[in-house]
Amino acid sequence: QCCPAEVKGICYYTKQDVSLGQFLRDSCFNLNLKCQNPTCKKTVLEHTLSFIHNDGQVDITVENMDDPLPPAPLNNDGTGAEQQQSNSGSRGKEGSSESSKRQINNNPIATWSYCNNCQKVVTPLVYI
Q1: Strand 56-61 versus strand 110-111 pairing type
Q2: CB within 8 A of 17, min separation 6: which ones?
Q3: What 3-state class would DSSP assign to 126?
Q4: Is 59:53 a contact under the CB 8 Å cutoff?
């Protein structure tokens, strides 16, 4: 363990609150992030993040994938679920925030469970 555990509070429904997808992109999938321990020379891909709340724990390990994820399934209107969510926000002039939303939509986040004992994915792919 590179760094000691620390308590972080999340103020829900405030300006500091972010969606789960944005949190994962910022805190887990950002390969430019450095370990908080200055003596650690490992990359984000060589760390496991653990989050604990009450009696539950979630461990996140990020790995490079050999094959890309299949595209997110389309909704009835022909858009991906994530694209539809980002389009429901404000519709201002096209600017950097709109182009960054489009870029994010090209990289959907999917979740699944993997069994370390049998070395298999044990749940279906779910896009968030």
Answers
A1: unpaired
A2: 10, 11
A3: strand
A4: no
Alpha-carbon gap, residue 115 to 44, rounded angstroms: 22
Query: 54, 59, 69, 76: which is closest to 106 by C-alpha?
Result: 69
pLDDT digits (tens, 9 = 90+) for 75-115: 655 555 444 444 333 333 333 344 444 444 567 788 888 88
How many Å apart are CA 63 and CA 82, to the nearest integer? 22
Task: Using alpha carbons, list the distances in angstroms from residue 102 to 66, 78, 81.
Answer: 24, 15, 13
| DSSP 8-state secondary structure symbol assigned to residue 44 | G
Residue that is written with structure tokens 């890309």 in the block = 68
Report residue 47 as tokens: 């760390």
